[in-house]
Design goal:
There is one protein chain. The relative contact order is 0.06. The chain is globular. 60% of the residues lie in helices and 6% in strands. The chain is built from 22 helices and seven strands. Among the domains are: 88 residues; 129 residues, Ribosomal Protein S8, Chain: A, domain 1 (2-Layer Sandwich). By secondary structure, the protein is α+β, with helices and mostly antiparallel strands. The longest helix has 19 residues. This is Pentatricopeptide repeat-containing protein At2g17033. Keywords: Repeat. Belongs to the PPR family. P subfamily.
């Protein structure tokens, strides 16, 4: 029998806060960014309170919640609920923290937070607490079918992210029953989409494909999302024939292969060093006029061990596209050549006018930033050699200051750019007003790239 829980329950969950967002520290594992206040709180917990010492932990939690604004308290809870939180030894304190937050005057019940907490509790084997929360949520939402299906979807997706098999199976049963019994097409579509997605997250794409067959029998045509989930689910497991089969089925159903789908395919090939399949796929993208994106670059170049070794080593990094292609092995050289044949990513990343010539490297992983930088240098040389070329007053490289890096304030891209700039003897310097940028006068950059007489 499901137990009762005498809580009021969780708060509104929004990554956009109404008040100014406090400084945050990116957790090392890439999970939810943590505020400085939250970081101090967790450090205090780790130093003075053992998870088996509930009295001390509860005292610190009570003090933190009482003295913290709503956004700070919720950020700390969000961090503990994340599957990738950088304080896993403190994850058992998520429930006590949640309980204390639920008692505040500003607190509003939020099913997404409850779903995430249930998934974490199930992973920890704390079934009494999780079942009580499930019972409470179902009771609150049972007359609001759309809200109920959203809760079940959040729950099953959270379980899949935590890789909690037992919690996943429970959530699947609830969601499957609601989906099958509902007369609403919206409920059925939402339920099937979430189940397919979550099965693929749990490395069960064959079951997800069976679910798509069930959708068809129930009169629902699969959407692009289901095909993407399943093809990528197979791809992550290295089952390329099944992945390619699903892509073909997607096209037969009338859906076009797009950049998102292509990036999933490339990422799958790259994870297994299937370079011989990556080059033809890049060529297929060009034939079908599917634009490359920053993620295309990231997916391809992250799978190139020689190139990644070069950019991480820094000292021996080639400073031109020609040098790079010569030094790489044949497979990686072919991939680089296919990428640079298209200028679509460079065109998106750069601006060029009389005021400023700017290259924005945000969103690029190390290999992508390096290759785009080399392309940009070549592009600037070509432009400066044209007599009618507009010379920007300032040239700027935007690489960020490391706010979102694994170690706050240490941007790998910025470090790479600095090394390249020094080795190239470039006139660009760190902007004193924005340490995430390198700047120089446009005419000075032109004189550096095109010495006197070379542009004639």
């Amino acid at each position: 029998m499901i137990g009762s829980l005498t809580l009021t329950i969780p708060p509104p969950w929004n990554h956009r806060h109404l008040r100014p967002t406090p400084p945050s520290i990116k957790c090392e594992s890439g999970g939810v960014p943590l505020t400085k206040q939250g970081h101090r709180f967790f450090s205090s917990l780790a130093a003075t309170a053992d998870v088996n010492d509930p009295a001390t932990a509860n005292r610190l939690i009570k003090k933190f919640v009482a003295s913290s604004p709503k956004s700070i308290a919720l950020n700390a809870l969000s961090h503990l609920l994340s599957p990738r939180n950088s304080h896993p030894q403190l994850s058992a304190l998520a429930f006590p923290l949640y309980t204390k937050i639920s008692e505040t005057s500003w607190y509003n019940w939020n099913p997404k937070v409850v779903a995430e907490l249930i998934a974490l509790l199930a992973k920890q084997g704390r079934y009494d607490e999780s079942e009580a929360l499930i019972s409470q949520a179902v009771s609150k939402l049972k007359f609001r079918e759309r809200d109920l299906v959203q809760f079940f979807c959040n729950w099953i997706e959270s379980c899949s992210k935590h890789n909690s098999k037992e919690g996943f199976n429970d959530a699947y049963l609830y969601l499957s029953e609601l989906t099958c019994n509902s007369s609403s097409v919206y409920i059925k579509r939402r339920g099937y989409k979430s189940m397919v997605n979550s099965l693929c997250e749990m490395d069960r794409p064959n079951e997800a494909e069976n679910l798509v067959d069930e959708m068809r029998k129930n009169g629902l045509k699969p959407t692009l999302f289901e095909f993407r989930f399943i093809s990528y689910g197979y791809g992550k497991l290295g089952l390329f024939e099944d992945m390619e089969r699903m892509v073909c089925e997607m096209e037969i159903e009338g859906f076009q292969v797009d950049t998102i789908c292509s990036n999933m395919v490339l990422s799958s090939y790259g994870a297994y060093n299937a370079f011989s399949k990556m080059v033809p796929w890049l060529q297929k993208m060009k034939t079908l006029q599917i634009p490359f994106s920053i993620r295309t670059y990231n997916s391809v170049l992250n799978s190139c061990p020689e190139l990644m070794s070069l950019v991480q080593g820094l000292d021996s990094v080639p400073l031109s596209l020609g040098e790079l292609v010569k030094i790489l092995n044949e497979d990686e050289a072919l991939l680089v050549q296919e990428l640079v044949k298209s200028s679509s990513v460079l065109d998106e990343a750069m601006e060029w006018n009389g005021t400023e010539g700017k290259l924005d490297l945000h969103g690029m992983h190390l290999g992508s930033a390096y290759l785009i930088m080399l392309q940009w240098i070549e592009e600037m040389k070509c432009r400066f050699k044209v007599e009618e070329c507009v010379i920007p007053a300032q040239i700027t490289i935007v690489c960020g200051s490391g706010k979102h890096s694994s170690v706050r304030g240490e941007s790998p891209v910025k470090t790479l750019m600095r090394k390249m700039i020094v080795k190239m003897k470039s006139p660009m310097k760190i902007d004193r007003k924005n340490i995430g940028c390198f700047i120089a006068k446009g005419q000075v950059v032109k004189n550096w790239l095109i010495p006197d007489g070379e542009g004639e």
